[in-house]
Specification:
With 573 residues, the protein is mainly alpha-helical. It is 77% helix and 0% strand.
Length: 573
C-alpha cells in the first residue's frame, strides 16, 4: 500500500481510520454489554457505603463493558430509582474513570497488523452464528479488529505529515513548554473530545500523533488531560435533558475531572517525571521519546501510564471528601440551580428495562408467543419498578403536606415520577400492541393477560397524574401565603397512610377492605369540611384546594383499587 501523497489523500485516510476506530469501539462495547447482560446491573447494585468497594465495582464494570458512559448511565438509573444514594454512586463513578483507562493500554499492544484478520474472523462469526451469544462474541472480536485496523490506518495516514513543513509548523502550536502552552494543549484535547464524542478515540489520535513525532510527549500528556475534561462536558450536556439526580451525577463527574486537571497543570512537569520513573521501574524504559527510525516506540506506553496514574491519583485525592462533595451537590443552593436549568430538558425519562424490552420484541426471528412470554417476565420487572416509584411518591406527598417549603426535592421527585410513569406506560402499551392480532397470541388466555397489563399500567399512570394534582394544589395554597388548618393536615396525612397501606396489601380481601376504609374516610373528611362547626372556617382558596385535594385522593384510591383488582384477577373496576 502506497503512502498518501497529497492533503486530500491524508485527510481521507485519517477520516477512514477514525471511522474504523469509532465503529470498533461501538461493536466492542455493545457486544461486551450483551455478553455481560444483567450481571452488570447486579455488580453495580453491590456498591455499598464502602467507598473503596464502590471504586472497585466501577472499575470492574467499566473494564468489562469498555464504556464509562454506560456505567454512569446505569448508576444514574440506580440513584433515580432510590436503590443507590449519590454518596454511594460517587465511588462507582471514580472507579469508572480508572476502568476506562484500560483501553489506552490495549492500544499500546503491537498487534495492528492482525486487525484485519480479527475484524474478518469476528465478522464471519457475527454473520453466520446461529446463536445470539455467538453474534455478541463475534461482534466484540470484530470491534477489536476494527479498533486496531483504524489505529493502523491513522498511523499510515499520519506518517507522511512530517514531510510537509506547514503541518509541522501547525503542530508546533501544541507545545507544552510553558503553563500557557499546557493550557492550550488541554483546551485542544477537550475540544477534540467534545467534537468526536469519544475520549478513547481522541487518546488514540494523540498516540498516533506522538508516535509519529508530530507532537512531543509533554504536549501529548497535556492533550490527554484535556481529553479527560472533554468527556465530562459531554456528560453534562446529556444530563441537561435529565432530572436533578442525573445533573448531580454529571456534576460530580465534572468536578472530579476539572479539579484533577487543574492541580495536574500546576504540577505538570514533576508529574511527568514521575511517569518516566514508572516506565523505567516497571518496563525498563529509559527514554520515553526513543526513536527507532520509523516511529517513537514507547510514547504510547507513556500516554497510557499518564492516563491511568492521573485517574488513580485523583481518585485517592477525592476518596476522603467525596461524601462531602455529594452533600454539597444535594444542598438546597444547588437544588435551586438545577431547577433553574430544567427548561433544557428535551428527552423523556426512561428506565433500562423498557429499553431492553423494545429491543427484544423487535426480534422477528422468534415466534410472537415466545417473544410475549419473554416480554411478560420483563414487564413484571417494569411493573415492580413503577410500584416502587409510586410508593416513594406517596411518601413524598406526605412530606409535601407536612412541609411549608415550596422548593423541595420531594416535589421535584413527584413531577419526575409522573413523567417517567407517562413515558413508561406509553411504551409498554406500544409493546403490548405488537402482540395483538398475531395468530400465536390470539388465544383467550394470552389476550386476557395482555388486557390485564394494559389495565394495570393505565391505572398506575393515572395514579401518578393525580399525585401531581395534589402537589399543585398544595403549592397553590402556599403561593397564597396561607396553609391548611392543623386538623386538615392531620386528616390528609392519615388518608395518605391509609392509601399507602391499602396499596401494600397482598391479600385480595384485605386489599378491598383497606380501600373501602379509605373511601369512607374521604367521605367523613368532606362532611367535616362543609359542616357548620366553624372549626374549619378558613379562606376560600384553602377550602377549594382542600376539597379538590380530596377529589384527587379519591381518584388515587379508585385507580389503585382498579390496579389491585386487575393484579389479583378480580373482575370488577
Amino acid at each position: 500500500m502506497e503512502k498518501p501523497s497529497s492533503y486530500l489523500e491524508i485527510a481521507f485516510a485519517l477520516i477512514g481510520g477514525i471511522g474504523f476506530f469509532l465503529l470498533g469501539m461501538k461493536f466492542l462495547s455493545e457486544g461486551l454489554q450483551k455478553i455481560a447482560g444483567n450481571k452488570i446491573r447486579s455488580l453495580i447494585a453491590l456498591a455499598t457505603n464502602n467507598r473503596v468497594f464502590g471504586v472497585g465495582v466501577g472499575f470492574l464494570v467499566t473494564a468489562i463493558i469498555q464504556s464509562s458512559t454506560v456505567t454512569t448511565v446505569l448508576v444514574v438509573s440506580f440513584v433515580d430509582s432510590g436503590l443507590m444514594t449519590l454518596a454511594q454512586a460517587v465511588g462507582v463513578i471514580m472507579g469508572a474513570n480508572i476502568g476506562t483507562t484500560l483501553t489506552a493500554w490495549i492500544l499500546t499492544i503491537k498487534i495492528e497488523q492482525y486487525g484485519l484478520v480479527l475484524a474478518g474472523l469476528g465478522a464471519i462469526v457475527y454473520v453466520f452464528s446461529p446463536k445470539e451469544m455467538g453474534k455478541y462474541v463475534g461482534g466484540s472480536v470484530m470491534g477489536i479488529g476494527c479498533i486496531f485496523l483504524g489505529l493502523m490506518i491513522m498511523k499510515f495516514a499520519a506518517s507522511p505529515i512530517r514531510e510537509y513543513p506547514e503541518f509541522v509548523e501547525a503542530f508546533k502550536t501544541f507545545n507544552a513548554n510553558s503553563y500557557l502552552g499546557i493550557l492550550k494543549c488541554a483546551f485542544a484535547g477537550c475540544l477534540l473530545t467534545v467534537i468526536i464524542q469519544s475520549s478513547t478515540v481522541t487518546i488514540g489520535i494523540t498516540m498516533v500523533l506522538a508516535s509519529q513525532g508530530l507532537i512531543s510527549f509533554e504536549s501529548a500528556a497535556a492533550l490527554v488531560l484535556g481529553e479527560n475534561l472533554g468527556t465530562t462536558l459531554t456528560a453534562i450536556i446529556a444530563s441537561l435533558s435529565g432530572n436533578n439526580n442525573a445533573r448531580r451525577t454529571a456534576s460530580f463527574h465534572a468536578l472530579f475531572n476539572v479539579i484533577g486537571v487543574f492541580y495536574m497543570t500546576l504540577i505538570f512537569h514533576p508529574a511527568l517525571d514521575f511517569i518516566k520513573w514508572e516506565l523505567d521501574f516497571f518496563f525498563g524504559i529509559k527514554d520515553v521519546s526513543h526513536y527507532d527510525g520509523k516511529s517513537f516506540l514507547h510514547v504510547g506506553l507513556g500516554i497510557a501510564a499518564l492516563h491511568t496514574t492521573f485517574n488513580i491519583f485523583n481518585t485517592l485525592v477525592f476518596l476522603g471528601p467525596c461524601r462531602q462533595v455529594a452533600r454539597f451537590l444535594e444542598s438546597a443552593f444547588l437544588k435551586r440551580v438545577f431547577v433553574k436549568i430544567r427548561f433544557f430538558r428535551k428527552e423523556k425519562p426512561k428506565i433500562p428495562e423498557v429499553e431492553m424490552l423494545l429491543t427484544m420484541v423487535n426480534n422477528k426471528n422468534e415466534s410472537s408467543y415466545i417473544r410475549f412470554v419473554d416480554a411478560e417476565s420483563r414487564i413484571q420487572k417494569v411493573l415492580n419498578y413503577m410500584r416502587n416509584q409510586l410508593n416513594i411518591g406517596l411518601q413524598n406527598l406526605k412530606s409535601c403536606i407536612e412541609s411549608t417549603e415550596k422548593d423541595s426535592p420531594e416535589i421535584d421527585q413527584i413531577f419526575e415520577m409522573e413523567k417517567l410513569c407517562d413515558n413508561t406506560t406509553e411504551r409498554i402499551q406500544s409493546i403490548l400492541a405488537t402482540f395483538v392480532g398475531s395468530e400465536e397470541t390470539t388465544t383467550p388466555d394470552v389476550q386476557k393477560r395482555i388486557f390485564k397489563y394494559e389495565r394495570i399500567f393505565d391505572s398506575l399512570e393515572s395514579v401518578s397524574d393525580y399525585m401531581t394534582q395534589v402537589v399543585k394544589l398544595r403549592l397553590r395554597v402556599l403561593d397564597n401565603k396561607t396553609d391548611f388548618l392543623d386538623f386538615q393536615k392531620r386528616d390528609l396525612l392519615k388518608l395518605n397512610d391509609l392509601i399507602s397501606e391499602a396499596m401494600a396489601c397482598t391479600n385480595p380481601g384485605a386489599h378491598e377492605a383497606r380501600f373501602n376504609e379509605a373511601k369512607e374516610f374521604i367521605r367523613a373528611m368532606r362532611a367535616t369540611l362543609w359542616s357548620a362547626d366553624g372549626e374549619n372556617a378558613t379562606n376560600l382558596i384553602v377550602n377549594d384546594s382542600y376539597s379538590n385535594m380530596l377529589t384527587s385522593y379519591r381518584k388515587i384510591r379508585d385507580h389503585l383499587r382498579s390496579y389491585g383488582n386487575a393484579f389479583f384477577g378480580i373482575d370488577k373496576d
